[in-house]
Amino acid sequence: MSRTVFCQKLQKDAPGLAFQLYPGEVGKRIFDNISQEAWTDWQKKQTMLINEHKMNMMNPDDRAILEKTMVDYLFNGIEPKIEGYTPQAK
After folding, report:
1. Record's family (predicted)?
2. pLDDT digits (tens, 9 = 90+) for 36-66
3. pLDDT by residue (tens digit) across 4-38?
C-alpha cells in the first residue's frame, strides 16, 4: 500500500516514498514531506550534478554541497545550476 504525503516540492498530495532513502533528520524531512515523483526528479538532477562537477561521494565537502543543493531544490524551490540543462516549464 502506498502512502500519500503533501509534497512540499510539488505543492500537492502525491504518493510518498516507500521508506526513508536518505539518512538523518534531512532524510526524515524528505520522507515526511516529499513525493516519490519529486524524489525521482531530484535523483536525475543529482546524477547530472555529480557528473558535471566530477563530485566524489567519498569526499565530505562534495556530499555537503550536494545535500545543500538537494534541500534547496526540494524545499526552497531553487533549481540547481547544471551546465547545458534547462528545466522544463510547468
Report:
1. Belongs to the Fe(2+)-trafficking protein family.
2. 999 999 999 999 999 999 999 999 999 999 9
3. 999 999 999 999 999 999 999 999 999 999 999 99
- Cell numbers 539518512: residue: 23
Q: What is the DSSP letter of 13?
A: E
- The amino acid sitting at 4 is T
Cell numbers of 10, please? 510539488
Backbone angles phi, psi at 50, to 5 degrees: -60, -45
Interior angle at CA 42, CA 40 and CA 46, nearest 5: 120
Distances (CA, A) of 32 to 2, 42, 84: 13, 16, 32
How far is it, in rounded angstroms, from Cα 31 to Cα 33?
A: 6
Letter for the amino acid at 69?
T
CATH architecture of 4-76: Orthogonal Bundle (1.10)
